[in-house]
Amino acid sequence: MIVITVVLDESGLLKSCDVRGHAGAGKRGTDIVCAAVSALARTALAVLAGRDGITAAGGPGGRGEFFLEIKSLSGAGREFLAGAGTFLVEGFRSVAAEFPQNCTLDIQTSRERL
Q1: What secondary structure letter does DSSP report for 112?
Q2: Closest to 60 in 3D by CA, of 37, 93, 82
Q3: Which end of the chain is more exposed for a tag (fewer CB within 10 A), N or C?
């Protein structure tokens, strides 16, 4: 089971994302659920880390682990993060809805604002 925990700030901006586990929906290297979640998380980190006004960190920890955290945010980065965060959460939501036996999504809200 893949467990995804997303933390949003009080205005709904992405603060962090933690992905852990294995979907078990297919053989290693051919699991469509793992591939979908991995592609979403890795692409989000690559796009956010390369954007002016956003400092993002993270990456794979060990096998079956991925973490993304927004360290700082300024200026035009705020609007970009809003769109990118919405895309990421909706992508995760879609995978979890289609494969509930293999993936769960927990969305939490933090009182701290970015």
Answers
A1: S
A2: 37
A3: N
pLDDT tens across 6-33, in order? 999 999 999 999 999 998 777 777 889 9
Q: Which residues contact 57 (CB under 8 A, 6 or more apart)?
A: 49, 68, 69, 71
Q: Is 75 helix (H, G, I), strand (E, B) or coil?
A: coil
Backbone angles phi, psi at 57, to 5 degrees: -135, 160
Name the domain count of the chain: 1
Distance CA 53, CA 28 (A): 37
Range of the domain at 33: 2-73+87-109
On whether residue 82 sits in a domain, the answer given is no
